[in-house]
Write a structure and sequence with these properties.
The structure holds two protein chains of two kinds. By secondary structure, chain A is an all-alpha fold. Chain A contains nine helices and no strands. Classes of the chains: A mainly alpha, B mainly alpha.
Chain lengths: 205, 435
Protein backbone atom coordinates (compact mmCIF):
# COMPACT_ATOMS: atom_id res chain seq x y z
CA UNK A 1 0.00 0.00 0.00
CA UNK A 2 1.48 3.32 -1.02
CA UNK A 3 1.93 5.93 1.63
CA UNK A 4 -0.56 8.70 1.90
CA UNK A 5 0.31 12.00 0.33
CA UNK A 6 2.12 14.28 2.75
CA UNK A 7 0.02 17.09 4.14
CA UNK A 8 0.62 20.24 2.14
CA UNK A 9 2.66 22.92 3.83
CA UNK A 10 -0.20 25.38 3.60
CA UNK A 11 -2.51 23.02 5.47
CA UNK A 12 0.05 22.50 8.21
CA UNK A 13 0.38 26.22 8.62
CA UNK A 14 -3.38 26.63 8.73
CA UNK A 15 -3.64 24.04 11.45
CA UNK A 16 -0.91 25.74 13.41
CA UNK A 17 -2.79 29.02 13.13
CA UNK A 18 -5.73 27.32 14.74
CA UNK A 19 -3.59 26.20 17.65
CA UNK A 20 -2.11 22.87 16.54
CA UNK A 21 1.54 22.95 17.62
CA UNK A 22 2.20 19.45 16.24
CA UNK A 23 1.39 20.73 12.77
CA UNK A 24 4.21 23.21 13.07
CA UNK A 25 6.54 20.49 14.25
CA UNK A 26 5.75 18.51 11.10
CA UNK A 27 6.45 21.56 9.01
CA UNK A 28 9.69 22.26 10.73
CA UNK A 29 10.93 18.69 10.48
CA UNK A 30 10.30 18.93 6.77
CA UNK A 31 12.46 21.99 6.28
CA UNK A 32 14.95 22.23 9.09
CA UNK A 33 17.63 20.11 7.46
CA UNK A 34 17.67 21.78 4.03
CA UNK A 35 17.37 25.22 5.62
CA UNK A 36 20.17 24.47 8.03
CA UNK A 37 22.44 23.26 5.25
CA UNK A 38 21.49 26.21 3.07
CA UNK A 39 22.46 28.58 5.83
CA UNK A 40 25.54 26.57 6.77
CA UNK A 41 27.00 26.67 3.25
CA UNK A 42 26.29 30.38 3.12
CA UNK A 43 27.74 31.58 6.38
CA UNK A 44 30.26 28.74 6.79
CA UNK A 45 30.03 28.74 10.55
CA UNK A 46 28.18 26.03 12.46
CA UNK A 47 27.23 28.14 15.45
CA UNK A 48 25.98 30.96 13.34
CA UNK A 49 24.13 28.55 11.07
CA UNK A 50 22.32 27.07 14.05
CA UNK A 51 21.45 30.52 15.30
CA UNK A 52 20.16 31.70 11.94
CA UNK A 53 18.18 28.51 11.37
CA UNK A 54 16.55 28.89 14.73
CA UNK A 55 15.79 32.53 14.01
CA UNK A 56 14.28 31.59 10.67
CA UNK A 57 11.75 29.27 12.20
CA UNK A 58 11.06 31.56 15.12
CA UNK A 59 10.07 34.20 12.61
CA UNK A 60 7.82 31.70 10.90
CA UNK A 61 6.20 31.03 14.27
CA UNK A 62 5.77 34.72 15.01
CA UNK A 63 4.39 35.65 11.59
CA UNK A 64 2.41 32.55 10.69
CA UNK A 65 -0.88 34.35 11.13
CA UNK A 66 0.26 37.06 8.72
CA UNK A 67 1.15 34.67 5.93
CA UNK A 68 -1.30 35.49 3.18
CA UNK A 69 -0.58 32.59 0.90
CA UNK A 70 0.45 34.74 -2.06
CA UNK A 71 3.54 32.55 -2.35
CA UNK A 72 4.32 29.04 -1.30
CA UNK A 73 5.25 28.35 2.30
CA UNK A 74 8.62 26.97 1.20
CA UNK A 75 9.31 30.17 -0.74
CA UNK A 76 8.48 32.17 2.33
CA UNK A 77 10.72 30.14 4.62
CA UNK A 78 13.67 30.27 2.24
CA UNK A 79 13.17 34.00 1.77
CA UNK A 80 13.44 34.52 5.51
CA UNK A 81 16.54 32.35 5.73
CA UNK A 82 18.14 34.03 2.76
CA UNK A 83 17.52 37.50 4.12
CA UNK A 84 19.06 36.54 7.41
CA UNK A 85 22.12 35.21 5.62
CA UNK A 86 22.45 38.40 3.60
CA UNK A 87 22.18 40.55 6.69
CA UNK A 88 24.79 38.45 8.41
CA UNK A 89 27.22 38.45 5.54
CA UNK A 90 27.01 42.22 5.31
CA UNK A 91 28.18 42.47 8.85
CA UNK A 92 30.99 40.03 8.36
CA UNK A 93 34.40 40.88 7.02
CA UNK A 94 35.32 39.08 3.82
CA UNK A 95 37.19 36.23 5.31
CA UNK A 96 36.86 32.51 5.59
CA UNK A 97 35.67 31.14 8.86
CA UNK A 98 36.94 27.84 10.04
CA UNK A 99 36.42 25.53 7.16
CA UNK A 100 34.17 22.60 7.61
CA UNK A 101 37.03 20.52 6.27
CA UNK A 102 39.38 21.42 9.06
CA UNK A 103 39.72 18.89 11.84
CA UNK A 104 37.71 19.59 14.95
CA UNK A 105 39.48 21.03 17.93
CA UNK A 106 40.10 19.39 21.23
CA UNK A 107 42.82 17.01 20.09
CA UNK A 108 46.03 17.08 22.08
CA UNK A 109 47.87 16.02 18.94
CA UNK A 110 46.98 19.23 17.20
CA UNK A 111 43.75 18.64 15.43
CA UNK A 112 43.92 15.39 13.57
CA UNK A 113 40.45 14.44 14.65
CA UNK A 114 37.46 13.90 12.44
CA UNK A 115 36.13 16.80 10.46
CA UNK A 116 32.54 17.89 10.55
CA UNK A 117 32.03 16.33 7.19
CA UNK A 118 33.25 13.03 8.57
CA UNK A 119 29.98 12.91 10.43
CA UNK A 120 27.75 13.19 7.41
CA UNK A 121 25.23 10.48 7.01
CA UNK A 122 24.77 8.32 4.01
CA UNK A 123 28.25 7.09 3.16
CA UNK A 124 27.41 3.98 1.25
CA UNK A 125 30.66 3.24 -0.53
CA UNK A 126 32.85 0.29 0.04
CA UNK A 127 35.69 0.48 2.47
CA UNK A 128 38.25 0.67 -0.32
CA UNK A 129 36.60 3.81 -1.70
CA UNK A 130 35.67 5.42 1.57
CA UNK A 131 38.75 7.58 1.73
CA UNK A 132 38.33 8.80 -1.82
CA UNK A 133 34.63 9.31 -1.31
CA UNK A 134 35.05 11.44 1.79
CA UNK A 135 37.78 13.46 0.17
CA UNK A 136 35.57 14.14 -2.84
CA UNK A 137 32.72 15.19 -0.60
CA UNK A 138 34.97 17.55 1.27
CA UNK A 139 36.18 19.04 -1.97
CA UNK A 140 32.67 19.34 -3.29
CA UNK A 141 31.56 21.11 -0.14
CA UNK A 142 34.54 23.45 -0.30
CA UNK A 143 33.89 24.18 -3.95
CA UNK A 144 30.26 24.97 -3.20
CA UNK A 145 31.27 27.32 -0.45
CA UNK A 146 33.58 29.11 -2.86
CA UNK A 147 30.86 29.71 -5.39
CA UNK A 148 29.79 33.32 -5.80
CA UNK A 149 26.90 34.08 -3.52
CA UNK A 150 24.35 34.45 -6.30
CA UNK A 151 25.29 31.11 -7.82
CA UNK A 152 25.62 29.34 -4.50
CA UNK A 153 22.16 30.18 -3.21
CA UNK A 154 20.54 29.00 -6.43
CA UNK A 155 22.63 25.86 -6.43
CA UNK A 156 21.82 25.05 -2.80
CA UNK A 157 18.09 25.58 -3.11
CA UNK A 158 18.07 23.35 -6.15
CA UNK A 159 20.27 20.60 -4.81
CA UNK A 160 19.20 20.58 -1.16
CA UNK A 161 15.48 20.83 -1.70
CA UNK A 162 14.94 20.17 -5.40
CA UNK A 163 13.21 23.50 -5.60
CA UNK A 164 11.80 24.39 -9.03
CA UNK A 165 13.61 27.17 -10.85
CA UNK A 166 10.46 29.27 -10.86
CA UNK A 167 10.24 29.10 -7.09
CA UNK A 168 13.92 29.90 -6.69
CA UNK A 169 13.32 32.94 -8.88
CA UNK A 170 10.57 34.05 -6.50
CA UNK A 171 12.89 33.72 -3.52
CA UNK A 172 15.81 35.48 -5.12
CA UNK A 173 13.79 38.07 -6.98
CA UNK A 174 15.25 37.63 -10.45
CA UNK A 175 13.81 36.17 -13.65
CA UNK A 176 13.71 32.42 -14.05
CA UNK A 177 16.18 32.51 -16.93
CA UNK A 178 18.67 34.30 -14.74
CA UNK A 179 18.27 31.56 -12.15
CA UNK A 180 18.96 28.93 -14.79
CA UNK A 181 22.02 30.80 -15.98
CA UNK A 182 23.37 30.97 -12.45
CA UNK A 183 22.76 27.28 -11.98
CA UNK A 184 24.61 26.53 -15.19
CA UNK A 185 27.56 28.68 -14.12
CA UNK A 186 27.58 26.99 -10.73
CA UNK A 187 27.67 23.51 -12.23
CA UNK A 188 30.40 24.49 -14.66
CA UNK A 189 32.44 25.99 -11.88
CA UNK A 190 31.93 22.95 -9.72
CA UNK A 191 33.02 20.70 -12.53
CA UNK A 192 36.16 22.75 -13.10
CA UNK A 193 37.00 22.76 -9.42
CA UNK A 194 36.66 19.01 -9.21
CA UNK A 195 38.31 18.22 -12.53
CA UNK A 196 40.96 16.08 -10.96
CA UNK A 197 38.23 13.77 -9.70
CA UNK A 198 36.61 13.42 -13.07
CA UNK A 199 37.14 9.75 -13.29
CA UNK A 200 35.47 9.24 -9.95
CA UNK A 201 32.55 11.36 -11.04
CA UNK A 202 32.20 9.34 -14.23
CA UNK A 203 32.01 6.21 -12.15
CA UNK A 204 29.25 7.79 -10.12
CA UNK A 205 27.40 8.84 -13.22
CA UNK B 1 19.60 26.29 -33.24
CA UNK B 2 22.44 28.61 -32.23
CA UNK B 3 24.69 28.00 -29.28
CA UNK B 4 23.03 30.63 -27.17
CA UNK B 5 19.65 28.95 -27.49
CA UNK B 6 21.23 25.56 -27.02
CA UNK B 7 22.95 26.57 -23.79
CA UNK B 8 19.72 28.05 -22.48
CA UNK B 9 18.07 24.65 -22.83
CA UNK B 10 20.88 22.55 -21.47
CA UNK B 11 20.18 23.21 -17.81
CA UNK B 12 16.57 22.13 -18.24
CA UNK B 13 17.80 19.12 -20.14
CA UNK B 14 20.18 17.92 -17.44
CA UNK B 15 17.49 18.63 -14.85
CA UNK B 16 15.03 16.47 -16.74
CA UNK B 17 12.60 19.32 -17.23
CA UNK B 18 12.77 19.83 -20.96
CA UNK B 19 9.71 19.09 -23.05
CA UNK B 20 9.72 16.47 -25.77
CA UNK B 21 9.74 18.88 -28.69
CA UNK B 22 12.57 20.94 -27.26
CA UNK B 23 14.48 17.79 -26.33
CA UNK B 24 14.33 16.62 -29.93
CA UNK B 25 15.42 20.03 -31.12
CA UNK B 26 18.30 20.07 -28.65
CA UNK B 27 19.49 16.61 -29.58
CA UNK B 28 19.56 17.55 -33.22
CA UNK B 29 21.65 20.59 -32.39
CA UNK B 30 24.02 18.58 -30.21
CA UNK B 31 24.76 16.23 -33.06
CA UNK B 32 26.30 19.03 -35.09
CA UNK B 33 27.77 21.32 -32.43
CA UNK B 34 30.84 20.13 -30.56
CA UNK B 35 30.92 23.19 -28.33
CA UNK B 36 27.44 22.46 -27.02
CA UNK B 37 28.32 18.81 -26.52
CA UNK B 38 31.29 19.85 -24.43
CA UNK B 39 29.08 22.18 -22.42
CA UNK B 40 26.55 19.42 -21.87
CA UNK B 41 29.28 17.07 -20.72
CA UNK B 42 30.47 19.64 -18.19
CA UNK B 43 26.96 20.18 -16.86
CA UNK B 44 26.32 16.48 -16.52
CA UNK B 45 29.56 15.96 -14.64
CA UNK B 46 28.72 18.95 -12.48
CA UNK B 47 25.37 17.44 -11.63
CA UNK B 48 26.97 14.13 -10.77
CA UNK B 49 29.26 15.92 -8.36
CA UNK B 50 26.48 18.08 -6.95
CA UNK B 51 24.52 14.98 -6.05
CA UNK B 52 27.36 14.05 -3.71
CA UNK B 53 27.19 17.26 -1.73
CA UNK B 54 27.23 16.19 1.89
CA UNK B 55 24.51 17.43 4.17
CA UNK B 56 24.72 17.91 7.89
CA UNK B 57 22.07 17.07 10.43
CA UNK B 58 21.02 20.19 12.35
CA UNK B 59 21.55 20.24 16.10
CA UNK B 60 18.48 18.93 17.97
CA UNK B 61 18.52 22.01 20.17
CA UNK B 62 17.15 24.07 17.28
CA UNK B 63 13.96 22.07 17.06
CA UNK B 64 13.55 22.06 20.81
CA UNK B 65 13.95 25.81 21.13
CA UNK B 66 11.60 26.60 18.28
CA UNK B 67 8.95 24.18 19.48
CA UNK B 68 8.87 25.83 22.90
CA UNK B 69 8.02 29.07 21.16
CA UNK B 70 5.65 27.33 18.80
CA UNK B 71 3.66 25.73 21.59
CA UNK B 72 3.26 29.04 23.37
CA UNK B 73 2.23 30.70 20.17
CA UNK B 74 -0.14 27.85 19.34
CA UNK B 75 -1.92 28.33 22.64
CA UNK B 76 -2.29 32.00 21.91
CA UNK B 77 -3.55 31.32 18.41
CA UNK B 78 -6.04 28.82 19.77
CA UNK B 79 -7.45 31.42 22.12
CA UNK B 80 -7.71 33.95 19.33
CA UNK B 81 -9.39 31.41 17.13
CA UNK B 82 -11.94 30.60 19.82
CA UNK B 83 -12.60 34.25 20.50
CA UNK B 84 -13.17 34.91 16.84
CA UNK B 85 -15.79 32.23 16.55
CA UNK B 86 -19.39 33.44 16.83
CA UNK B 87 -20.71 32.78 20.34
CA UNK B 88 -23.22 29.99 20.66
CA UNK B 89 -26.67 31.07 21.55
CA UNK B 90 -27.46 30.49 25.18
CA UNK B 91 -30.59 28.44 25.71
CA UNK B 92 -33.70 30.53 26.11
CA UNK B 93 -34.53 31.17 29.77
CA UNK B 94 -37.54 29.44 31.07
CA UNK B 95 -40.74 31.37 30.57
CA UNK B 96 -41.93 30.72 34.06
CA UNK B 97 -40.36 33.93 35.27
CA UNK B 98 -42.14 35.98 32.69
CA UNK B 99 -45.37 34.50 33.69
CA UNK B 100 -44.92 35.92 37.16
CA UNK B 101 -45.03 39.50 35.99
CA UNK B 102 -47.14 41.29 33.45
CA UNK B 103 -46.54 41.56 29.73
CA UNK B 104 -44.27 44.55 30.25
CA UNK B 105 -42.02 42.51 32.47
CA UNK B 106 -40.85 40.48 29.52
CA UNK B 107 -40.20 43.56 27.48
CA UNK B 108 -38.08 45.05 30.20
CA UNK B 109 -36.15 41.87 30.58
CA UNK B 110 -35.53 41.76 26.87
CA UNK B 111 -34.27 45.32 26.90
CA UNK B 112 -32.05 44.58 29.85
CA UNK B 113 -30.54 41.63 28.03
CA UNK B 114 -29.99 43.74 24.99
CA UNK B 115 -28.23 46.46 26.90
CA UNK B 116 -25.69 43.98 28.16
CA UNK B 117 -24.95 42.48 24.79
CA UNK B 118 -22.34 43.47 22.22
CA UNK B 119 -25.09 44.22 19.77
CA UNK B 120 -26.10 47.24 21.75
CA UNK B 121 -22.57 48.54 21.82
CA UNK B 122 -22.28 48.22 18.08
CA UNK B 123 -25.63 49.84 17.51
CA UNK B 124 -24.75 52.70 19.83
CA UNK B 125 -21.48 53.24 18.04
CA UNK B 126 -23.22 53.28 14.71
CA UNK B 127 -25.77 55.82 15.91
CA UNK B 128 -22.98 57.97 17.26
CA UNK B 129 -21.11 57.89 13.99
CA UNK B 130 -24.18 58.73 11.97
CA UNK B 131 -25.03 61.56 14.34
CA UNK B 132 -21.56 63.01 14.17
CA UNK B 133 -21.59 62.71 10.43
CA UNK B 134 -24.90 64.44 10.11
CA UNK B 135 -23.63 67.27 12.23
CA UNK B 136 -20.18 67.47 10.65
CA UNK B 137 -21.14 67.46 7.01
CA UNK B 138 -23.32 70.55 7.17
CA UNK B 139 -20.57 72.25 9.12
CA UNK B 140 -18.17 71.50 6.32
CA UNK B 141 -20.40 72.55 3.48
CA UNK B 142 -21.98 75.53 5.16
CA UNK B 143 -21.17 79.12 4.35
CA UNK B 144 -17.57 80.02 5.08
CA UNK B 145 -16.77 82.59 7.67
CA UNK B 146 -13.18 83.18 6.70
CA UNK B 147 -11.09 84.66 3.98
CA UNK B 148 -11.79 83.36 0.49
CA UNK B 149 -9.55 80.53 -0.79
CA UNK B 150 -6.57 81.47 -2.89
CA UNK B 151 -8.03 80.35 -6.17
CA UNK B 152 -8.04 82.43 -9.25
CA UNK B 153 -11.28 83.17 -11.02
CA UNK B 154 -10.18 81.48 -14.16
CA UNK B 155 -9.77 77.71 -13.99
CA UNK B 156 -6.18 76.58 -14.44
CA UNK B 157 -5.25 75.02 -17.73
CA UNK B 158 -2.89 72.53 -16.17
CA UNK B 159 -1.34 71.76 -12.84
CA UNK B 160 -2.77 71.27 -9.37
CA UNK B 161 -3.01 74.92 -8.48
CA UNK B 162 -3.77 77.86 -10.68
CA UNK B 163 -1.73 80.13 -8.44
CA UNK B 164 1.33 78.16 -9.47
CA UNK B 165 0.55 78.13 -13.17
CA UNK B 166 2.59 80.68 -15.04
CA UNK B 167 0.68 83.40 -16.75
CA UNK B 168 2.51 82.85 -19.95
CA UNK B 169 4.58 79.86 -20.98
CA UNK B 170 7.95 81.12 -22.12
CA UNK B 171 9.01 80.04 -25.53
CA UNK B 172 12.31 78.24 -25.40
CA UNK B 173 14.85 77.67 -28.11
CA UNK B 174 18.27 76.24 -28.49
CA UNK B 175 20.80 78.95 -29.04
CA UNK B 176 22.62 77.95 -32.22
CA UNK B 177 25.77 79.63 -31.03
CA UNK B 178 26.09 78.14 -27.62
CA UNK B 179 23.86 75.10 -27.78
CA UNK B 180 22.16 76.13 -24.54
CA UNK B 181 18.44 76.26 -23.97
CA UNK B 182 17.40 79.85 -23.65
CA UNK B 183 14.24 81.85 -24.13
CA UNK B 184 13.34 83.14 -27.54
CA UNK B 185 13.71 86.67 -26.30
CA UNK B 186 17.33 86.13 -25.41
CA UNK B 187 18.03 84.57 -28.77
CA UNK B 188 16.47 87.48 -30.57
CA UNK B 189 18.25 89.95 -28.37
CA UNK B 190 21.58 88.30 -29.03
CA UNK B 191 20.93 88.32 -32.76
CA UNK B 192 20.10 91.99 -32.69
CA UNK B 193 23.22 92.70 -30.70
CA UNK B 194 25.35 90.86 -33.20
CA UNK B 195 23.85 92.81 -36.03
CA UNK B 196 24.54 96.01 -34.19
CA UNK B 197 28.13 95.23 -33.25
CA UNK B 198 29.27 93.68 -36.52
CA UNK B 199 30.78 90.29 -37.43
CA UNK B 200 31.77 88.19 -34.45
CA UNK B 201 35.15 86.63 -34.02
CA UNK B 202 35.60 83.31 -35.74
CA UNK B 203 33.02 80.87 -34.52
CA UNK B 204 35.35 77.93 -34.74
CA UNK B 205 37.72 79.26 -32.13
CA UNK B 206 34.98 80.36 -29.74
CA UNK B 207 33.05 77.16 -30.07
CA UNK B 208 36.12 75.04 -29.69
CA UNK B 209 36.86 76.80 -26.41
CA UNK B 210 33.30 76.44 -25.23
CA UNK B 211 33.20 72.82 -26.26
CA UNK B 212 36.40 72.16 -24.37
CA UNK B 213 34.95 73.86 -21.30
CA UNK B 214 31.73 71.90 -21.49
CA UNK B 215 33.52 68.64 -22.03
CA UNK B 216 35.69 69.33 -19.04
CA UNK B 217 32.64 70.04 -16.94
CA UNK B 218 30.83 66.97 -18.13
CA UNK B 219 33.67 64.52 -18.38
CA UNK B 220 33.71 61.81 -15.76
CA UNK B 221 36.63 61.39 -13.42
CA UNK B 222 39.84 61.06 -15.39
CA UNK B 223 40.76 58.00 -13.39
CA UNK B 224 37.83 56.12 -14.93
CA UNK B 225 38.57 57.26 -18.44
CA UNK B 226 42.20 56.32 -18.23
CA UNK B 227 41.37 52.70 -17.59
CA UNK B 228 38.37 52.57 -19.93
CA UNK B 229 39.74 51.12 -23.13
CA UNK B 230 36.35 51.00 -24.77
CA UNK B 231 35.61 54.68 -24.49
CA UNK B 232 39.10 55.59 -25.64
CA UNK B 233 38.68 53.37 -28.66
CA UNK B 234 35.31 54.86 -29.43
CA UNK B 235 36.64 58.38 -29.02
CA UNK B 236 39.47 57.53 -31.39
CA UNK B 237 36.94 56.29 -33.90
CA UNK B 238 34.98 59.51 -33.55
CA UNK B 239 37.99 61.68 -34.16
CA UNK B 240 39.12 59.61 -37.08
CA UNK B 241 35.75 59.87 -38.74
CA UNK B 242 35.61 63.61 -38.34
CA UNK B 243 39.13 64.11 -39.61
CA UNK B 244 38.32 62.03 -42.65
CA UNK B 245 35.28 64.16 -43.34
CA UNK B 246 37.38 67.32 -43.25
CA UNK B 247 35.60 68.87 -40.27
CA UNK B 248 37.38 70.66 -37.49
CA UNK B 249 39.38 68.07 -35.59
CA UNK B 250 38.31 67.52 -32.03
CA UNK B 251 40.85 68.16 -29.40
CA UNK B 252 41.85 65.53 -26.91
CA UNK B 253 39.10 65.00 -24.39
CA UNK B 254 36.47 66.50 -26.61
CA UNK B 255 33.46 64.54 -27.67
CA UNK B 256 30.71 64.99 -30.14
CA UNK B 257 28.31 65.52 -27.27
CA UNK B 258 30.00 68.79 -26.45
CA UNK B 259 30.16 70.20 -29.87
CA UNK B 260 28.05 73.11 -30.87
CA UNK B 261 26.49 73.07 -34.25
CA UNK B 262 28.82 73.98 -37.05
CA UNK B 263 26.46 72.91 -39.71
CA UNK B 264 25.88 69.41 -40.93
CA UNK B 265 28.34 67.15 -39.19
CA UNK B 266 29.06 63.77 -40.67
CA UNK B 267 27.32 60.87 -38.97
CA UNK B 268 29.26 58.62 -36.64
CA UNK B 269 30.53 55.37 -38.09
CA UNK B 270 28.27 52.43 -37.46
CA UNK B 271 29.34 50.43 -34.43
CA UNK B 272 29.97 47.27 -36.36
CA UNK B 273 32.56 48.91 -38.54
CA UNK B 274 34.40 50.81 -35.87
CA UNK B 275 38.04 50.76 -36.87
CA UNK B 276 39.22 50.87 -33.31
CA UNK B 277 37.48 47.70 -32.28
CA UNK B 278 36.46 45.92 -35.47
CA UNK B 279 34.22 43.68 -33.42
CA UNK B 280 30.76 42.61 -34.32
CA UNK B 281 28.27 41.79 -31.62
CA UNK B 282 29.18 38.40 -30.26
CA UNK B 283 27.14 35.68 -28.70
CA UNK B 284 26.17 35.37 -25.91
CA UNK B 285 26.90 39.02 -25.27
CA UNK B 286 24.59 40.71 -27.71
CA UNK B 287 26.05 44.18 -27.43
CA UNK B 288 29.47 42.97 -28.51
CA UNK B 289 32.73 43.99 -26.96
CA UNK B 290 33.62 47.50 -27.92
CA UNK B 291 30.31 48.13 -29.58
CA UNK B 292 29.00 51.62 -29.37
CA UNK B 293 25.76 50.38 -27.92
CA UNK B 294 26.08 49.07 -24.44
CA UNK B 295 27.61 50.76 -21.46
CA UNK B 296 26.86 54.33 -22.47
CA UNK B 297 23.54 53.60 -24.16
CA UNK B 298 22.97 54.16 -27.81
CA UNK B 299 25.06 56.67 -29.67
CA UNK B 300 23.04 58.48 -32.26
CA UNK B 301 24.63 60.14 -35.22
CA UNK B 302 23.56 63.68 -34.64
CA UNK B 303 24.01 66.03 -37.45
CA UNK B 304 22.13 68.76 -35.66
CA UNK B 305 21.26 69.69 -32.15
CA UNK B 306 17.69 69.84 -33.30
CA UNK B 307 17.66 66.06 -32.99
CA UNK B 308 18.10 66.08 -29.23
CA UNK B 309 14.58 64.85 -28.73
CA UNK B 310 15.30 61.83 -30.86
CA UNK B 311 18.04 60.60 -28.55
CA UNK B 312 16.57 57.59 -26.87
CA UNK B 313 16.83 57.53 -23.14
CA UNK B 314 18.25 54.25 -21.95
CA UNK B 315 15.94 52.21 -19.87
CA UNK B 316 17.34 52.37 -16.36
CA UNK B 317 16.42 48.79 -15.77
CA UNK B 318 18.07 47.46 -18.88
CA UNK B 319 21.10 49.60 -19.56
CA UNK B 320 22.02 51.77 -16.61
CA UNK B 321 21.99 49.08 -13.91
CA UNK B 322 24.80 46.93 -15.32
CA UNK B 323 26.76 50.05 -16.16
CA UNK B 324 26.21 51.35 -12.65
CA UNK B 325 27.28 48.03 -11.18
CA UNK B 326 30.36 48.06 -13.32
CA UNK B 327 31.25 51.56 -12.25
CA UNK B 328 30.59 50.70 -8.64
CA UNK B 329 32.78 47.61 -8.87
CA UNK B 330 35.61 49.63 -10.37
CA UNK B 331 35.38 52.26 -7.68
CA UNK B 332 35.41 49.62 -4.97
CA UNK B 333 38.44 47.98 -6.52
CA UNK B 334 40.28 51.25 -6.72
CA UNK B 335 39.44 52.13 -3.15
CA UNK B 336 40.87 48.82 -1.98
CA UNK B 337 37.57 47.20 -0.96
CA UNK B 338 38.46 44.06 -2.84
CA UNK B 339 35.85 41.85 -1.23
CA UNK B 340 33.03 44.18 -2.05
CA UNK B 341 34.45 44.74 -5.48
CA UNK B 342 34.55 41.01 -6.13
CA UNK B 343 30.99 40.58 -4.98
CA UNK B 344 29.81 43.43 -7.18
CA UNK B 345 31.60 42.04 -10.21
CA UNK B 346 30.20 38.59 -9.55
CA UNK B 347 26.73 40.03 -9.25
CA UNK B 348 27.18 41.99 -12.45
CA UNK B 349 28.31 38.95 -14.38
CA UNK B 350 25.64 36.70 -12.91
CA UNK B 351 22.68 38.96 -13.36
CA UNK B 352 23.58 40.65 -16.61
CA UNK B 353 25.08 38.03 -18.81
CA UNK B 354 24.19 40.06 -21.88
CA UNK B 355 26.11 43.09 -20.70
CA UNK B 356 28.29 44.39 -23.50
CA UNK B 357 31.37 44.94 -21.36
CA UNK B 358 31.11 41.66 -19.51
CA UNK B 359 34.39 40.29 -20.94
CA UNK B 360 36.20 43.40 -19.76
CA UNK B 361 34.56 43.03 -16.38
CA UNK B 362 35.86 39.46 -16.20
CA UNK B 363 39.40 40.65 -16.70
CA UNK B 364 38.93 43.30 -14.04
CA UNK B 365 37.46 40.77 -11.64
CA UNK B 366 40.42 38.50 -12.23
CA UNK B 367 42.67 41.38 -11.28
CA UNK B 368 40.71 41.92 -8.08
CA UNK B 369 41.12 38.29 -7.17
CA UNK B 370 44.80 38.41 -8.00
CA UNK B 371 45.26 41.38 -5.72
CA UNK B 372 43.38 39.65 -2.93
CA UNK B 373 45.50 36.55 -3.28
CA UNK B 374 42.88 34.27 -4.81
CA UNK B 375 45.05 33.19 -7.69
CA UNK B 376 42.88 30.24 -8.65
CA UNK B 377 39.82 32.44 -8.93
CA UNK B 378 41.80 34.95 -10.92
CA UNK B 379 42.94 32.26 -13.26
CA UNK B 380 39.41 30.95 -13.76
CA UNK B 381 38.07 34.30 -14.76
CA UNK B 382 40.94 34.96 -17.10
CA UNK B 383 40.39 31.61 -18.76
CA UNK B 384 36.78 32.52 -19.22
CA UNK B 385 37.61 35.96 -20.56
CA UNK B 386 40.11 34.49 -22.98
CA UNK B 387 37.21 33.01 -24.92
CA UNK B 388 36.30 36.45 -26.17
CA UNK B 389 38.57 37.76 -28.86
CA UNK B 390 38.17 41.35 -27.75
CA UNK B 391 39.95 40.73 -24.45
CA UNK B 392 41.69 37.48 -25.28
CA UNK B 393 45.09 39.07 -25.64
CA UNK B 394 44.74 40.86 -22.30
CA UNK B 395 43.53 37.69 -20.63
CA UNK B 396 46.39 35.62 -21.99
CA UNK B 397 48.88 38.22 -20.96
CA UNK B 398 47.54 38.22 -17.43
CA UNK B 399 47.53 34.44 -17.33
CA UNK B 400 51.14 34.39 -18.39
CA UNK B 401 51.82 36.87 -15.66
CA UNK B 402 50.14 34.65 -13.08
CA UNK B 403 52.13 31.69 -14.29
CA UNK B 404 55.32 33.64 -14.04
CA UNK B 405 54.44 34.60 -10.50
CA UNK B 406 53.61 31.03 -9.56
CA UNK B 407 56.44 29.51 -11.49
CA UNK B 408 54.00 27.12 -13.14
CA UNK B 409 54.06 26.23 -16.80
CA UNK B 410 51.78 28.24 -19.03
CA UNK B 411 48.32 26.80 -19.42
CA UNK B 412 47.03 25.68 -22.75
CA UNK B 413 43.75 27.37 -23.33
CA UNK B 414 40.97 25.25 -24.70
CA UNK B 415 41.10 25.89 -28.39
CA UNK B 416 37.57 24.72 -29.11
CA UNK B 417 36.21 27.37 -26.75
CA UNK B 418 38.07 30.18 -28.41
CA UNK B 419 37.25 28.92 -31.85
CA UNK B 420 33.66 28.41 -30.88
CA UNK B 421 33.35 31.90 -29.47
CA UNK B 422 34.94 33.47 -32.54
CA UNK B 423 32.74 31.38 -34.76
CA UNK B 424 29.68 32.49 -32.85
CA UNK B 425 30.74 36.11 -33.21
CA UNK B 426 31.16 35.74 -36.96
CA UNK B 427 27.89 33.90 -37.26
CA UNK B 428 25.94 36.66 -35.59
CA UNK B 429 27.59 39.45 -37.53
CA UNK B 430 27.46 37.89 -40.98
CA UNK B 431 24.56 36.21 -42.68
CA UNK B 432 23.88 32.88 -41.01
CA UNK B 433 25.58 30.18 -42.92
CA UNK B 434 23.35 27.52 -41.43
CA UNK B 435 24.47 24.12 -40.39
Amino acid sequence: MSGTEPTPDEELLRRFNRGDARAFEDLMRRYQRPIYNFVLRSVRDTEQAAELTQETFLRVVARSADFQGSSKVSTWIYTIARNLCIDTSRKMVFRRHRSLDQPMGGDADGGEGPTLLDRVAGAEHGADRRVIGDDVKSRIAAAVEELPEEQREVFLMRELDDMPFKEIADVVGVPENTVKSRMRYALERLQRALAEYEDYAKELG
Amino acid sequence: MDCERCESLLIDYVSGELGDAETAELRAALEVCEHCRLTLAKLERGRALAAQLPTVEPPPAILAAVMRAAEARAAELAREHEAARPPERAPAPKRAIEEEGGPLEGVWRWLAGLLHGPQFAMAALLVLMVGVGLWWVPALTGPRAGPPPLVSDTPPATGPSASLAPREVPRLEIDPRTGRIVSSEEVNAAAEEREATGPARPIVVAEAEEAADRTTDRAPAPALLEADDERTAEADADRAALAAAGSVALGAGESLAGRAELGALPPLPAPSTSPATGMAPSAPYRGGEGSASGVTGERVARSSLDDLDSVPAPSPDETMLPASLHTQARLLARSGSLADAARTYERLLSEHDDYASAPRAMVELADVYRRSGSISSARRWLERAARFPSVASDARRELARLDAMAGAPALELAEPDVAGAAEAERATSAAPSGE
